[in-house]
Amino acid sequence: MTSTTVRPPASTTPASPVPPAPPALTAHLTPERMAVAQRAQAAKMLGELAHECLLRPEPHDGGWRVVGDDASVTWEFRARRLPLDHWQVDPGSVRRVVAGSADPRADRVDAQQLALDVRERIGLGEAVLPTYLEEIASTLGGRAWKLRPDAPTSAALADADFQTLEAAMSEGHPCFLANNGRIGYGIDDYLAYAPETGQRVRLEWLAVRAEHAVYAGVDGLEDQRTMLADQLDADELASYDAVLRERGLDPADYLLVPCHPWQWRNKVAITFAPQLASEEIVHLGTGRDAFQPQQSLRTFFDVDRPDRHYVKTSLSVLNMGFMRGLSPAYMAVTPAINAWVDDLVRTDPVLGELGFSVLREVAAVGYRHPLHDQHGPSAYQKMLSALWRESPVDRVGGDERLMTMAGLLHVDADGRSLAAELVERSGLAPRAWLATYLRAYLHPVLHCFYAHGLVFMPHGENLILVLRDHVPVRAVMKDIGEEVGLFADGDDLPPEVRRIAAGDVPVEQRVLALASDVVDCYLRFLAAALDDAGTLPADEFWAEAAASVHAYQDAHPELAGQFEVHDLFADTFDRMCMNRLQLRDNQQMVDLADPSSAFQLGDPLPNPLAAHRRTGVA
Q1: DSSP class of residue 268?
Q2: Quick one: residue 85, left, alpha or beta (phi over 0 = left, psi -120 to 50 = alpha)?
Q3: H/E/C letters for each residue in 132-149?
């Protein structure tokens, strides 16, 4: 039997378009999920903008209202005010009112409209506004995805493994409003690489001419091949060398750089096209190990070989006020900075007794573009770098497990706090659980500051907790190279470590490394979560926090002078306003070479620790 293909006459009209495929990529963007996401986002915006004194809610009809730039527009809501001027806004109560009447769309709260309604009051200028609205839209999309029906509950997460927890977090940075912008990702990129999707990623590997690159490693890893011998299988490394040799190139002339797949396709393969053509850069292929993206977006955990290092890559995606590149100049000194900090931490008996440690960034590599290096600083100089950070998996015993500290702020879709779940599972009284946690987290941070002038960026994503029986017993700090600082002039530091010196920060502002970065920007939210869950009233939380500070101070009378100069029990402290930075410039909200540029201050903030000051004691 033969078959005949029937062709339409040439004169027929064009065929109807092929029906689109089912919207799998955007299946999470349903009206129901977006309505929940919009209300959660609007509630957070109202609360944090009020906290930063950019909005000043006034009492209205048993609740609160904010008047827009156009006085005929108001936003009404109910909220509880907790210590530290924390506004716990009820998402279900938020509504927009126009000329005294409820907006017909009041049941469909729009967080972007809220930003537009108050843009003059919050200083959202025309240059920043369009991208900021896009960042809010992206953050809303992320919230909608996290509301998927199969998302793990807090009860499930209380016993989950490290990487399940890492992918399950429902919120980004607790202070920032547009905290999941990720400008540059398409929807397919989001589903492939966003931390909350928990997907497996294989990195791309590139070789770059050593004469136009920098590599640095801690003692014993000064040679990149020595370091890579533990991070790649021998045959995999040999296969990369073979790619070079097949082109007539000598592997000894090159350094190897792991690259985010998005970065390879969207930046390196295009922006560095001449260098690829000249074989100054050579694409070697896709790596063998599967990695999982971490909350920091451009850092990857090796799920095939958890004992191997994290890999942190350049990523030219705009997220929360920065293009997430990595500077080759920073890479050149990152291992030395990490080694110096690690040596200080390991040799301090107090930190040792507390079990505190850091995850060293043991090696780093960066490509220096020969043309972009001829002009001033730019994002183009940070497009092809990477570093390797120690894995924490060997820091736990058989009855212990790891958890990102961001988990303590996690609230599931049913409104259940993970921290409250941990407290309940532990069997401890809430204040006893909190005291143990604060000893593990707060005491090392206090000691580094008061004894050494050493400060970190100790928010939830930068800390890994070691839990035993659902109680945090130790803390591990990470992200050292870019975010550590030392309140000293740096003259006594090794030359390669002097970048961390922050001796120019005024003495009176240094306590903000504790009062703002720890108390306001992290503990404030934990206090609210435990209060909201009915686990521990906020006033009792702050009483226990004060008791923890007193316990540390009592154990170290030799630092009494420092406690007086940097007083954590002052009546008020400066109110650091994080969102003001992003609203001012969402492309680069802080000059990393000028720490003082991060100081955007609001009204003095009443200090909840002050009520527990001991009479006559500094």
Answers
A1: I
A2: left
A3: HHHHHHHHHHHHHHHCCC
- Give the separation between CA 13 and CA 235, rounded to whole angstroms: 58
Encode pLDDT of 275-312 as tens digits. Answer: 999 999 999 999 999 999 999 899 999 999 999 999 99
HSE, side-chain direction, 13 A CA sphere, residue 322: 14
The 8-class DSSP code of residue 288 comes to: S
Strands (E), 321-384: 322-323, 357-358, 361-367
Total residue count of the chain as it appears in this document: 618
Q: What backbone torsions phi and psi does residue 303 show, to the nearest 5 degrees?
A: -80, -20
Please classify residue 139 by burial: count the beta carbons closer than 10 Å to its beta carbon, then call 0-12 exposed, 13-18 middle and 19+ buried. Answer: buried
> Domain extents for the chain?
24-150, 196-389, 398-477+505-612
Q: Chain centroid to CA 230: how far?
A: 28
Phi, psi for 401 (deg, rounded to 5): -145, 165
Query: Checking DSSP bridges between strand 471-477 and strand 357-358, what pairing results, if any?
Result: parallel
Instruction: Give DSSP secondary structure letters for 444-475.
Output: HHHHHHHHH-EE---SGGGEEEEEETTEEEEE
- Dihedral angle at the C-alpha atoms of 371, 374, 378, 384, nearest 10 degrees? 40
Contacts of the segment 118-123: beta carbons below 8 A, 24+ positions apart: 118/49, 118/54, 118/55, 118/66, 118/68, 118/69, 118/75, 119/69, 120/69, 121/54, 121/55, 121/68, 121/69, 122/49, 122/54, 122/55, 122/579, 122/583, 123/54, 123/580, 123/583, 123/584
The CATH code for residues 398-477+505-612 is 1.10.510.40
d(CA 501, CA 327): 18
CATH for 24-150?
3.30.310.280
* Nearest alpha-carbon partner for 324 in 314, 334, 310, 312: 314
For residues 340 and 346, give the distance between their C-alpha atoms in angstroms, rounded to a whole number. 10
Report how far residue 220's alpha carbon sits from residue 263's, in angstroms, rounded to the nearest whole number. Answer: 30
pLDDT digits (tens, 9 = 90+) for 230-266: 999 999 999 999 999 999 999 999 999 999 999 999 9
Distance CA(558)–CA(576), nearest Å, equals 30
Q: Give this prediction's pTM.
A: 0.93
| 291-293 vs 299-302, strand pairing mode | antiparallel
